[in-house]
């Protein structure tokens, strides 16, 4: 889904964000804009600072310099759960699911179960408001699992899922939060060709629901199929941005990947 680029539909604005770990500058004056309806990709050699940038956006790390705005509101310095409640969801490079729990239970974690409208007293007393919350939460999880194609596996333990389905489950858990912006950290890692195709179709389907997407991805065929706009970073700094067709011919980008510009 392509988007017009203007301030009125700017979803994420990261301006001159910098993060240092001792003497190492992991992210250096990085600028990223994501607009409503866009699928953007953040690419670069291993160790270029991609995941650190995502961690800054989601509040896992605090920026040392720069600003981050989401829907026009500053979010740097906020806790990760506060940023999530505002409408930013993410997945992780390494899958984080509870293998001993069911698919439904894993997805329900994204709902922030117990942090809803019902108070602790209502929960203990099994009040009407608590029961309504349970019904509503169950319905939401069922709908999301159906949307991502996991409804028939709802009662299956997550550890029994094929690896590709586990990736999808993590995305489902993120979608439970009803995000406006979804950050995907290497979602195609470890997937076979059919699983990559399924993932690509799901990301397009999510985007058609009005959710903007920023993804880190090493598989260029996935970036080429999905991304409206690509940011390339190396050694923590942005070295190029543009459409995939332009980026893949950029000699600076080619040198970063194939020369000595790796992490």
Automatic annotation (TrEMBL):
SUPFAM superfamilies: P-loop containing nucleoside triphosphate hydrolases. It comes from the Bacteria. One of its GO terms (biological process) is L-valine import across plasma membrane. Residues 12-260 form the ABC transporter domain. GO terms for molecular function: ATP binding; ATP hydrolysis activity; L-isoleucine transmembrane transporter activity; L-phenylalanine transmembrane transporter activity; L-valine transmembrane transporter activity. Keywords: ATP-binding, Nucleotide-binding, Transport. InterPro entries: AAA+_ATPase (IPR003593), ABC_AA/LPS_Transport (IPR051120), ABC_transporter-like_ATP-bd (IPR003439), BCA_ABC_TP_C (IPR032823), P-loop_NTPase (IPR027417). The keyword Ion transport does not apply. GO terms for cellular component: plasma membrane. This is Leucine/isoleucine/valine transporter subunit ATP-binding component of ABC superfamily.
